[in-house]
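REQUEST ID: PR-0412
SUBMITTED BY: lab tech R.K.
PRIORITY: routine
TASK: structure prediction, single protein chain
INPUT:
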Amino acid sequence: MRKQIAAANWKMNLTYQQGEKLLDDILTAKIPLAPHQQVIFTVPYPYLIMANSAVANENNYAVAAQNCYHKKSGAFTGEVSTEMLQSIGIKYCVIGHSERREYFAESNQQLAEKIDLLLEKSIQPIFCCGEALSIREAGTQNNWVETQLKESLFHLQPGDMEKVIIAYEPIWAIGTGKTASAAQAQEMHEFIRSIIQQKYGTAIADNLSILYGGSVKGANAGEIFAGPDVDGGLVGGASLVAEEFIAIIKALK
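STATUS: complete
OUTPUT:
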């Protein structure tokens, strides 16, 4: 079975002490995870070492950075390189989140560069894609997402592509309280998988984890994750509440 993933995206929230407590509350719940299930905590840079230490002895728990820079090193004050992430044992990194694209004008080309740098350092990218409300209303969301995938990922060789995790996030459903219906989520996930299949073949497409991101909560996670092409979620606000995120983890297939 494909890897089923509950990824918590803390964004720019929580103090160090609050983050420690949240991790402790979730880890002490001792949620039984099957071999194909994984929990990833995507935490702010100052908490990466703490969080990585907290999950070090836990099976199927890991930590991700929320971003990385698209250059190897140099005079880029305030940025964090993939080499830095590798040096502290980080195995995953989210890139291309809609907030990064919107507020920091990240381009598909920059994301392609980040993908290469992450893979070079054996860090698995969690690549975000998705459309704004205006694009959804115009009915052009498939073309939009296809372009994001092709311009950022389709330069990869098959052996590298199979290391990528994709997170589909309808931007109109992030932090708005709106959620794509389970049917809408499945429809886009199925489309994404079909695009991957056309380029890389059935074996890679069938084994690629595609997560849904957009107002996932404990109450709706089971219904959303039930879609045959939905392999878990990239969870924002609900991941900041231990009881909510525990329920989401338990909803994994």
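NOTES: The chain is about 40% helix and 15% strand.
REVIEWED BY: pending
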